[in-house]
Amino acid sequence: MAKLMNKGAVEQPAFTAEIPFEMRLGLVVIQVNINGKDYDFMVDTGAPNVITEELAAELKLQPALQQKTGDSQGKKESLNFVEMPEMLIGGIHFIETGAAVADLKRSNVIACLDVDGFVGANLMKSAIWQFDYERKIITISDTIASFDIPANAIRIPFVQAGTHTPKIDISYDSIMDKNVTFDTGSNGYFSTSQAIYSKLNQQGKITQPVVSFGANNSGLYGLEGVDSSYSATVEKTTLGNLTIPNQVVSFDHGARTLGTKFLKHYRVIVNWFTNEISLIPTDDFVNTTFEHFGMTPMYTGEKLEVRMVIIGSDADKKGIRIGDQILEVNGENFGNFSTDQWCEMLNNGLVPEADQQVTLVLLHDGVEREVVVEKLNLMKTN
Fold first, then answer.
1. Three-class SS state of 12
2. CA 282, CA 108: separation in Å to the nearest integer?
3. Nearest residue to 120 via CA among 23, 34, 53, 43
């Protein structure tokens, strides 16, 4: 696969283009033109190019190789890889790039993106990419002179993985987490391993952790396994020449990532030619609290079910358990739950963000009951 991932180039000798994007589920989606037709692609520095099985069939692409590939939750399965025809992004001609062929409907989270594929790092490596989340514009160029980078910009060195994904080092209270995925395909903040949590805990640096049990994340191959995960405040989180105080960090079993809930507060420039990321702040990034109702729903089949509960939360104290079916949310009937309703919920949340309580009707072991759940700052109450 290395040979296919290392292929790829831009046809033009010099280029600069601006491409508008939209946000879906907190992720960047752009239009890519292939054989004269426009398709929607999510831009994902944390993965290689990926296309749907339907698009591969439409383009009549034959597999160049097959290889086991892991998703963000650590699951591995065999995927076919193909060489893509020319891909035009903002008029820039990307040629001879490889792509994995996958069923993007298998995960009912990724399915809600409603995209034809991912623009991955093995394509992006042939240019310098800027993500302007404030203007919703991507700029692609062959020269750093196309970008305004102030002298006080945050600078983060990276190394390239085999698929050319940027890997950075992040320090959590002086404990180094190496080769973390710089991931525009993750809509989270800072996520690291439970091994880092154990080290911090042994040093007495973890206080008032938030402990949850269940499945809260989804990768290419579906929902993560049921397990415990943690969130806690880290006094000093450092990447490059940036140190952030009192940062809430997730400690999970899945991929170690830095995602778009953090990145969207910056103008982000990824320079694959010099292996450096530049961050220019566009607003104040603050993530020092953990407000939550204490449960997370997931669409399973034709039901909306509780799939994660935070221990000690209001939901936990009121007896909400994994597997409870959610029949109503604030009077809205979810008994016959649809894919469209699920995708709307993923985009907008269970209730509006400002709401401090939610009234649920739940079905547990055949018995219906109504529960009013309060949103709490769990970093203070646990």
1. coil
2. 33
3. 43
Residue ranges of alpha helices (H) inside 47-95 are: 53-58
| Residue 60 backbone phi and psi in degrees, to 5 | 55, 45
Separation of alpha carbons 229 and 233, rounded Å: 14
Which residues of the chain does CATH 2.30.42.10 include?
A: 291-381
Architecture of domain 2-145: Beta Barrel (2.40)
CA–CA gap between residue 117 and residue 43 (Å, rounded):
9
Task: Give the pLDDT means over successive 10-residue stretches in the chain (382 positions).
Answer: 87 96 97 98 97 97 80 67 96 96 91 96 98 98 97 96 97 96 96 95 92 71 65 95 94 90 97 98 88 92 91 95 95 90 91 92 95 90 40
Query: According to the model, what pLDDT value does residue 218 have?
Result: 54
Residues 113 and 27 sit within 8 Å (Cβ to Cβ): yes
Q: What are the two backbone dihedrals, phi and then psi, of residue 202, each rounded to the nearest 5 degrees?
A: -65, -30
pLDDT in the model for residue 225: 54
**DSSP for 213-282?**
EE---EETTEEPPSEEEEEEEEEEEEETTEEEEEEEEEEESS--EE-HHHHTTEEEEEETTTTEEEEEES
Q: Which residue's structure tokens are 């989606």? A: 29
Relative to beta strand 76-83, strand 98-102 is antiparallel
Residue 381's pLDDT is 41
Quickly name the fold that domain 147-281 has: Cathepsin D, subunit A; domain 1 (2.40.70)
Indicate the helix (H) or strand (E) that contains 60: none
pTM of the model: 0.91
CATH topology of domain 291-381: Pdz3 Domain (2.30.42)
pLDDT at 382: 38
Q: How far apart are the first and last CA of the chain?
A: 47
Inter-residue contact 357 to 343 (CB < 8 Å): no
| Encoded amino acid at 60, one letter | K
Residue ranges of the chain assigned to CATH 2.40.70.10:
2-145, 147-281
Task: Supply the DSSP symbol for 335.
Answer: S
Per the CB < 8 A criterion, the answer to whether 177 and 250 are in contact is no
Q: Nearest CA to 55 among 85, 27, 91?
A: 85
